[in-house]
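Review form for a predicted model. The reviewer records the input and the model, then writes brief findings.
Reviewer: anonymous (R2)
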Amino acid sequence: MNDMDAWIQTRYGGVDEVARTQIDVPQPQRGEVLLRVRATGLNAADRHIMTGEPLLLRSAFGWSRPKQPVRGIDVAGTVVALGPEASGFAVGDEVVGEIPGGGGLAEYAIAPAGRLVPRPAEVDPVTAAALPIAGGTAWQALRRADVASGDRVLVLGASGGVGTFTVQLAAVRGAEVHALCSERNRALVASLGASTTYDRRTVPLAALPEKGFDVVVDIAGDSPLRAVRRLVRDGGSAVLVAGEGGRVLGPIPRVARAAALSVFSRRPLHPLAATAKPEALRELLALAADGRIAPVVERTWPLAEAGAALAHLAAGRTVGKVVVTVE
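Model under review:
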């Protein structure tokens, strides 16, 4: 086990900067484990790191090129080696979790043991790899808004990875879910638990009832903040999930405006900076094992075609999730 197949990039840019090559199998350091990758879920975060935009993120991931050249943060795999002081797992364990910075588009990957949780036998690797970032973000958004049974929840941008999980998890909590998405995805979103769906191209936010919702989860991130707040009842809130924005600062200006609009407001706007939460992933895996949620996986690609999967992700029209499998 000296080298492995991996998709790497040596500088920021588009999909053309990512190439399949042979590199050394990494060795686990203190508190880390080595995984034989089974499946890797792709997310908007992988696209942002690949392109190096917004430029602000380079302060964390590398100024001139990515510190970690292999994309793929969400990984399901098998533990094959443990570094010093890596506790809680044994060789042969099936696990899933988030790898800081990436590394999943390869045959083997290094992960901090503290970021991993066991994968239940009832949950296959593709399902598991689709859960961590998108499912975890949806979980944190609903918890931030304290969504409870009977709440009226509006999801803006309901057909992507985070959106499809938000609809399902809100329905699991007993909420009455309303959703905006494209016309072609309305039936899909309804099947996930939305009682009412709207075509985002023909139904403006102004057409929706003023103060008509206990919670608005804004994943699309392209609506004026005042228009979003108008939809929230007094005592309710909106959670801003979208991480898009300008080329330099990304969502920071929108976050600042949301903070200013929320001062003394009875309808606050809460920007969400989702983080890796193993406790959320454990809950998501349990729900998946029980059949109460299921990721919408638009398509899977084998590792040999991971470049095509990244290109599909970069095009920005993914419905649900894209997953790369490793034989």
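Findings: The longest strand covers residues 32-42.
Further findings: The CA atoms of residues 154 and 178 lie 5 Å apart.
Recommendation: see findings above.
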